[in-house]
Structures are given as C-alpha cells and as structure tokens.
Design brief:
295 residues; alpha/beta; 5-stranded mixed β-sheet; two-stranded antiparallel ribbon; globular
Length: 295
C-alpha cells in the first residue's frame, strides 16, 4: 500500500487523527455503548483510566479486568478520550461472551496504552493483554486505503478497525490462555493463537451480526495480515516466531473457506486460495476447531 514498513508505519497527520477520534465513538459502539466519561473513570476507586469489570451473566470464574491508560503523547490524547468514552473493551462481543467463563489461576487484565509503535501483546509477568493506541491509528489508515482502492462506503475504515482489533485482542488472549493454563501447543504458538482468534470470531460474533458479516470481518483481518508484508525477506524474517504475512493470510483464508466450501468457491477463482490448499481446508477447519474446543 506504500503505508507500512515491516517494523513501523508512516504516521498520519493531525487532521487525520482528529477524523479518526471522532469516528471511534461510532466504531466502538457496536449497538448501544456503555458510555464511561474520562472524568468519571479518573474519579472512581479503580486506577486512573480504569473501568471496574462486571462479571458476565452466570459467570463461572473471575471476571476480566479492563483499563485505559492515559498516553503522554499529545496526538494520542483524543484517541484515548474516545476509547474511554466508548468503553472499548465492552464493545468486543467475543470478549464479553468469554468474560467469566474461565477459572483463571490469577488476574487477567485488558489494557489500552501508549506503546511507541503499533502493536498488541501479552505480558505474562503483569497478566496483561495490551492494545496500543498507535494500532487504532494505523488500522484506520489502512482501512482508508482499502476503501479507496475498492471504492467502498464511508463506514468501511471503521469496520476495518473493529474487525482487526477483535482479532488482535483474541490472538493475545490465546497467548494468555496458553500461559495461564499451561496448555500444550505443538507447532508454532503464533499459528495456534491465530487459529483460536478466528474460531472465536466465528463462534462468538456479535448477536446483531450474520455469519456472513463475521466471515467478511475475517477477510478484512486477512487483508491486514497481507498488507504488513513487504515481499522482501531476510534471514531474520524467516527465523521469526511469526509466520510470514503471506502465510498467515492464506492460513486464515483456509479457515474461512473450510467453513463452507460451496459458498466460498469463488475464493479459489479470485486467487485468495490455491486449489491444492482449498482441498484440505474443510478438514483443517474441523481439526482446528475440535482441538481448541477440547483444550
């Protein structure tokens, strides 16, 4: 796209950031948002920028904790304010469906924070899943580029951000579950939690979403994975714990195709999946889903 580098991105202008922050309230609503004013969050007994967690109905385990840490960079302040007002964490349907379902051995907190670069990660020592404010800005830029390239509607960048944030957070939740429950993983853990994130989106999509809409969200995730690839790899890229962007793209496309080969037969014609790989995708999808459900 000309926007991304392998280890960073070109940052948008301040006017772009203003457009993004104004859109975030709509993006994160996902229906009727539980609005939490930044001032109220600071006045509560929880840490600055935190929102006290509420257990899910009929919860069987401790509820997740949620926090929004104020950034120091002035250009991230508006994004922080919108994220707090919209109560981002409670607008992610899969996270809310899973909240309270696990007998966690210790606390698991979901945090938005300034990171210095786009990303999301799990910190085992702190028991935290961190989503970077910079990621929201970068995803919005890619969503705009994707919309312009395909001539899509005005709301497309917002949907692009929301779909990818859901996947990122669920990917990092996968790392957390592997760590907290000492789950066995054969093969590359990064691939396994990519699979888990896709499965959770397919199983626990928003109640107002159709299966087709969830599938389309996963295809936006696949676009993001591919957009981060440069095509020029050195030995460090091949040795990295993550699969190459192109491989993650096709792995995710295979999971999507495997859910309904007849409905997604056009993916092969469009070049989104090779015919040889497509033949094994229904089996891969069943195996992956069955393995995670048993764990």
């Amino acid at each position: 796209t000309g926007i991304f580098r392998r280890h960073g991105c070109l940052m948008p202008s301040s006017s772009f950031a203003t457009t993004l922050t104004m859109a975030l309230a709509v993006l994160l609503a996902g229906g009727t948002p539980a609005t939490v004013a930044a001032g109220d969050a600071r006045k509560s007994s929880t840490p600055t920028g935190s929102v006290a967690a509420q257990p899910a109905t009929a919860a069987r385990g401790p509820a997740f904790e949620y926090a929004y840490r104020p950034p120091s960079a002035p250009d991230l302040q508006p994004i922080y304010q919108r994220v707090v007002e919209a109560d981002l964490w409670r607008q992610l349907p899969e996270l809310q469906e899973l909240d309270g379902l696990f007998a966690l051995p210790r606390r698991l907190r979901f945090v938005t924070a300034e990171c210095g670069e786009p990303g999301a990660f799990y910190r085992p020592a702190q028991g935290e899943v961190v989503l970077c404010y910079e990621s929201l800005r970068t995803l919005y830029a890619q969503g705009q580029a994707h919309r312009q390239a395909l001539g899509l509607g005005e709301d497309h960048p917002l949907r692009y951000v929301r779909a990818n944030v859901r996947f990122m957070v669920l990917h990092e939740l996968g790392h957390a579950l592997v760590d907290l429950f000492d789950l066995p993983v054969t093969g590359r853990q990064e691939d396994a939690v990519d699979q888990l994130a896709a499965i959770l989106m397919l199983r626990f999509g928003g109640r107002d979403e159709s299966p087709g809409e969830v599938i389309e969200d996963l295809r936006l995730v696949a676009n993001w994975l591919l957009s981060r690839s440069t095509g020029a790899y050195d030995i460090d890229a091949f040795a990295d714990e993550h699969a190459l962007g192109e491989q993650r793209f096709f792995n995710l496309q295979c999971l999507v195709y495997g859910t309904d080969p007849d409905a997604f037969a056009g993916m092969v014609d469009a070049g989104d999946l090779t015919a040889a790989r497509a033949a094994s995708c229904p089996r891969e999808s069943r195996q992956t889903s069955r393995a995670w459900v048993r764990l």
